[in-house]
Amino acid sequence: MGHIKLTNVAKSFGNVDVLHGIDLEIGDGEFVVFVGPSGCGKSTLLRIIAGLEKPTGGELAIDGAVVNNVPAADRGLAMVFQSYALYPHMSVRQNLAFGLENTRMPKPEIRERIAEAARMLEIEPYLDRRPGQLSGGQRQRVAIGRAIVRRPVAFLLDEPLSNLDAELRGSTRAELAALHARLSATMIYVTHDQIEAMTLADRIVVLRAGRIEQVGTPLELYNAPANRFVAGFIGSPHMNFLEGTVETNGPGKTVATLAGGHRLEVPLDNAGIANGAKVTVGVRPHHISIGGEQGLPATIRLVEALGSETVLHADVSGQKVLVVAPGQHDLAPGADVRLSLSAAPLHMFNEKGLRLGHAV
Amino acid sequence: MSRVAAFVFRRKGGKGWHWTDIVTWVWLVGGLFIMFGPAVWLVGSSLKTPAALAEFPPTILPYVTQKVSVEGFDKPFDLYEVTLDDGSKATLAEVRRIGIVSQMVDPKAPGEIIKVNIAQRTPVREMSFATENYTEPFTHFDFFRYLWNSVFVTVVATLITLVVNSMAAFALSKYEFRGRTAAMLVILATLMVPLSVIMVPLYSIVSALGLFNSLWGVILPTVATPTGVFILRQYMLTIPDELVDAARMDKASEWQIYWRIILPLTAPALAVLAIFSVVWRWNDFLWPLIVLSRKELYTLQVGLSIYSGELNVQWHFILAMTVVTMIPVVLVFIFLQRFITTGIAGTGLK
Q1: Beta-strand runs (E) in chain B
Q2: Is residue A13 within 8 angstroms of chain B, CB to CB?
Q3: What pTM value is reported for the model?
Q4: How do strand A253-258 and strand A263-266 relate by DSSP bridges?
Q5: Chain B nearest C-alpha distance from A69 (Å)
Q6: From residue A9, how far is each of A44, A128, A204, A230 by CA, in Å?
Q7: Does ipTM exceed 0.85?
Q8: B248–A77: do the CB atoms touch at under 8 Å?
């Protein structure tokens, strides 16, 4: 139950192609997060799975049966909308019951399921209120409750936390993770927030401009991004990119010359790239340390002291570099420092943005 | 009370008078007379006798000349204030008038006839309400039959209008289909075609359908109104599509989406359309007059026209029955004016 397979799914609105041949398999009980910048097609993909949009090409199968022409109501899925989409003229109880009444479920069972969901989500005191009388967090719970009572094959969640304030978002995120563990149902979750993606997902699907850029576990994406886009999208603050050219290219070691003339050794098994080719070296802000004789000469532009760590905005021969240094540092803007990359896992991307080889 | 007074007499100029205060007062008082004056005139006149109505100059309140019975005469006479030749004043009853001379008697001493020039007498007037203007039509005019016809036409036409128009508006606001905008434009374009243009073909259709001389012939041609479709569609456009999506995920049929989700949420716009429809149907005159030729099917508005004959118009009955006919519409406005103002603000329509 809850196995969803997409084969070459495409969608266009008029002349605009929104999705280009999406292939994806989502296992039963998996928590999959679609992440990407706005306009990348992630919500459209979710709506296609839900049955609210028809794909213009490809095939969608749920538990082995092709459902391209099955209406949304009969796919056995439940959706939580970004705006919650609670029926404003019905009480919370009626909101929860509406979907069950439509399946002609006997009244005692409806009552039982609502009671169970209300207990699980702690919304029992509000059952007779209207959505307008609830706070944002309470509405969010009701929206999830409306999905739970249906006992769906899979839950589809469209940016469910984006309307909550930061604190509530954090706690609701934890509750969602707990809920997934308890229900062990398939969940597909759309967000543009990579922290939500990293914390919740079993697997993350990174989308850009209607194409899947990479599918993998959160740490796979973090440690081995397939390309420059994924490398820049996953992780906060985002990865630093330094432009350079390949100087020597040997087994186990590739040397690149950066724009400022500094030489950088990248441990690559097989770069498969010609000498003199333009490349981009990627390094995460957390992996750069301050000091070291061999380091890159840099000028501090801005210091953001967060207490537990310090975010430094530095300038390395015209290229912006972010450094997250643990602890507190007595640095002022304008100070000259050296940045050591010796301990850092380095990534190298070719001109097309593809990541080269494997870091040792 | 003092707070109400403070609100009403509040001025922009504070203690003095700003010129906008003067304009405001002139505008509002003038507006009160223009809007409310005819209604007061109508109610006042409806209580006048036919003679008082024909009087010139007219009076606002219904006055009649006082009558008095005089011993020895069968009929009561009009009572006059008379200035006699010797300069003394007396109250006399007029027996008859010959040219400019009036023959009068003193009601207390009926034996003697006094001749008086008519310029020397003025009638003794008293206020009197001619309630028979209201009571009489209920006996010889089939008021309740007409009232029932009017109520039937208004209620049924309004209900059908609400259902039909909201369905059209639902399709035009929540479904994506080719030609949706074109369909809306065509519907709106019919706003520009007045009844008088389509009267003849409409009559042919109604007649061919066998609806001539039937209240359904009055109801059915009026139920699809472009104004109603427009008001409801504009309102439904403001209902988020995600609610419809959510209902679809909740296994609701299209009918349930319309009936259980969209209609309850459109209630404010429906209320506005209901008010409009009631007023339109209640005040309809021309179309019912064309379709209905049997007297027992007349609506109130058509029924009232039987008082205006070719040679003689019975104004006192027309005025009184007009007041009665106005009452339901006035009540609708009093109780639902809240909806009308918000609805008009919401749709930008009249």
Answers
A1: 63-65, 67-68, 77-83, 89-98, 101-106, 109-117, 121-123, 125-127
A2: no
A3: 0.79
A4: antiparallel
A5: 15
A6: 11, 42, 18, 22
A7: no
A8: no
A115 contacts: CB under 8 Å, gap ≥ 6:
A124
Q: Does B245 touch chain A (CB under 8 A)?
A: yes
Q: Please give, rounded to a whole number of angstroms, the shortest distance from the CA of A149 to a CA of chain B.
A: 11
Q: What is the pLDDT of residues A10-25, one digit of tens each?
A: 999 888 999 999 999 9
Report yes or no: A179 at the B interface, CB cutoff 8 Å: no
The tokens for A336 are 């000259």
| pLDDT given at position B113 | 82
In B, minimum Cα distance to A156 occurs at: B249
Domains identified in chain A and CATH numbers: 4-233 (3.40.50.300), 240-349 (2.40.50.140)
Q: Are B167 and B258 in contact (CB under 8 A)?
A: yes
SS (H, E, C) A296-329: EEEEEEEEEECCCEEEEEEEECCEEEEEEEECCC
Which of A51, A81, A89 is facing B246, going by the closest CB pair?
A81
Task: Find the CB nearest B250 among A47, A51, A98.
Answer: A98
Structural domains in chain B plus CATH codes: 2-45 (no CATH), 63-127 (2.30.30), 134-347 (1.10.3720.10)
Give the pair of three-digit tokens for residue B210.
């066998």
Question: What is the rounded CA–CA span in Å between residue A96 and residue A297?
Answer: 61
